[in-house]
Amino acid sequence: MRLRTAAVLTLSVSLLALGACSSVRQGIGLTKVTPDEFLTVSTAPLTVPPEYGLRPPAPGQPRPQELAPESA
After folding, report:
1. 49 Cβ contact list (under 8 Å, min separation 6)
2. CA–CA dist 32, 64 (Å, integer)
3. Are 18 and 12 in contact (CB under 8 A)?
4. Distant-in-sequence, close-in-space partners of 19: CB < 8 Å, separation ≥ 6
5. Which of 20, 37, 53, 57 could form an SS bridge with 61, CB 3.0 to 4.6 Å?
């Protein structure tokens, strides 16, 4: 019985010591990782599409990519 108590005590002390290490705590996910709010990320500038003036067709109008039955 004393051997079992000594093993449990040794295991609990070693787990407590490992839990105090920051790298172990970070490895098992016990620490909160916060993003750096001062980090800047450069992105590509916005560009205007080539058909910027293109508007959707009015309802009921034929689609421009479809061929007329007469020309088919």
Report:
1. none
2. 56
3. no
4. 25, 30
5. 57
User: Which residue bears the tokens 């787990």?
Assistant: 15
On whether the CB atoms of residues 9 and 15 are closer than 8 A, the answer is no
Compute φ and ψ for 35, nearest 5 degrees. Answer: -75, 155
Domain-wise residue ranges, the chain: 1-26
CA 68 to chain centre: 48
The single-letter code of the amino acid at 61 is Q
Contacts by residues 32-35 (CB-CB < 8 Å, ≥ 24 positions apart): none
CA dist 37 to 2, 40, 64, 67, Å?
Answer: 54, 8, 49, 55
> Could you give phi then psi for residue 47, rounded to 5 degrees?
-120, 155
